[in-house]
Amino acid sequence: MRMCLNLAVALLAGVASPSAAQPVELTNAQVTVVSAENGLEGVFDARRTALASPGWIGYAVPIVSGEHFVCDWNESGRLVGPRAVKLEGGDTLHVLYRVEQAAVTRIRSFSEGCGIDAGGLPVVWLTGTRPSESVALLTRYSNDHTRRIANDALAALALHAEPAALTTLLARARDGASAHVRGQALFWVAQRAGDKAIPAITEAIERDPDTEVKKKAVFALSQLPRNEGVPKLMDVAEHHSNPAVRKQAMFWLGQSKDPRALTFFERILLK
């Protein structure tokens, strides 16, 4: 029998909370509701250490505006299909951390309408979570040496409405602990950063010491909305000192199907 989280809370935990009635369908879970109103990280770390392995810790925060429907599938918890999809997009992001032997091994982010089967594992649901504290917690994991955890944390940050999330993404694009982290952060910067995206991506193309990061930055230019990265792609394709980076810019210009790219290629060929 499927139960939404608020019903699961009532039946399994017997605890009432004003933040418990979340629009997430959570089934097959041993739910405990805990308040995080006195600080997320302290409660999270205490529950992470005490949680019987394996298990999950989750909470809800506002999602970035736009039409976002984010469900996922993984080997730890089966995700069943959406029960109800809001045509105008939801306003809530659910972030869940898988814990095993007191360590976080996965981070999953889901929008409203995703059905989640916890596989019979314990789930600690934290209420009263402040968005800024969620960003601080995810920032802690966004530089993780495990690629999967860093990827998950950066993706979750990109979906946060909280402005501090963008600050973290920009910082990781500039000074992430590994080339992989910087490259992944650049991808999310292109999706989220608006007017700040091109300066951050340009800085990576010019200054990052790793060629692979430079190439990922070129790809990030190609992901900007409305082909906003095309002028910079043309500049990189023509003038960058690294031939691998120039080649990457040429490739993504060709994929853009932008009339300016066609004119650029004609000019280059006629030189």
What report would you give on this structure?
- The protein is elongated.
- The chain has a domain at 1-129.
- The longest helix is centred in the C-terminal third of the chain and has 14 residues, at 179-192.
- It contains eleven helices and eight strands.
- By secondary structure, it is an alpha/beta fold.
Shape assignment: elongated
Order of helices and strands: HEEHEEEEEEHHHHHHHHH
Biggest sheet, spatial arrangement of strands: 2-8-3-5-6
Q: Considering DSSP H and I runs of 4 or more, what fraction of the residues is helical? A: 40-55%
**Computed structural class:** alpha/beta
| Low-confidence runs | 1-23, 73-83
Radius of gyration: 21 Å
Sheet with most strands: 5 strands, mixed
Number of strands: 8
Please report the number of helical segments.
11
Quick structural overview:
It contains eleven helices and eight strands. It has helices at 5-13, 40-50, 131-141, 147-158, 163-175, 179-192, 197-207, 211-222, 230-239, 243-256, 259-270, and strands at 25-27, 30-35, 55-62, 79-80, 92-100, 103-111, 115-117, 122-127.
